[in-house]
Amino acid sequence: MNPIRKKKALLVLIPIAFLSLPVILLLGCNALVYRGIRKEEQSLQGNDRYRVQARFSEQKSSGSSPAVLLIHAFAGSPLDFEPLIRELENEGIAYHAVLLPGHGTSPRDLREKTSGDLLSAAEEAYDALEKQYGTVCVMGVSMGGAISLHLAEKKTPEKIVLYGPYVDITKKWYYFGSGEKWAKRLHKILPYVRKLKPGNINDPRGLEKYESYDYLPVKTVGELAKISRGVRKNIDNVRADVLWFHSPGDIASDYGSARELFSEIPGKKKRFVECPRSNHLILYDYDGPEAIEETISFIKGKERP
What we know:
Mean pLDDT: 85
Structural class: alpha/beta
Strand content: 5-15%
Number of helices: 10
Oligomer: single chain
Largest sheet: 7 strands, mixed
Number of strands: 9
Shape: globular
Radius of gyration: 22 Å
CATH class of the largest domain: Alpha Beta
């Protein structure tokens, strides 16, 4: 090849190689993620990837009324409430820690679920508990907090307790926009992302105890946004007493948006509690013991917002 043709070929190949590099990196990243998901499925569940793992299964206990419905976080499980469940049992309070569709099995299962699937399951669990006990209180962590607000808008719980409920993704300058919008744009080419750690918890002892999915389906973030939009639209319908725990340092659920939504809840029987030492999963964090103590008092009627 003569020098002129060689130069022209290089001028063509260099931009192609430069433009191809992100694609190659993305394909390699996705391949590693899928390999990790398959490895986790095989090690924990054998060939049935959508079988519920025993450690993530729902938990129930009979006891006194009011009964408590516990709704976990996105990619979480009833384990989200483990520190609180022990105290509910000590107090003889009936509870049902529900396992929502797509959880406790595989991130690939969760990716197929919609906001409607999650809300319907929570409503069915609420109806069953109300039929059995008459009076129901609802507690939710993160996404479960948003679903708890949905139930307070559609049903008649006596009280709701929220721990870092999801309203918006915490805003960061390096997101260059809304995290929810980025998820909508990217989920087809980046189906899953690996979590940097099991949960957003400041206390190392709590972090060591916490378990959840290692990978998150990006598409489902859009379904969370649908739940949040519905909650904000109907917030005037909340009639239950509200106890809301949130950390100013929550890196998952935006603190400012939470304060704003709390202010829109009608009625005077509500209280917003700051948890300054904690991150997102408050029950496992430094402020957890105080939050649990206040929760029990609130449910038993010893303290109202």
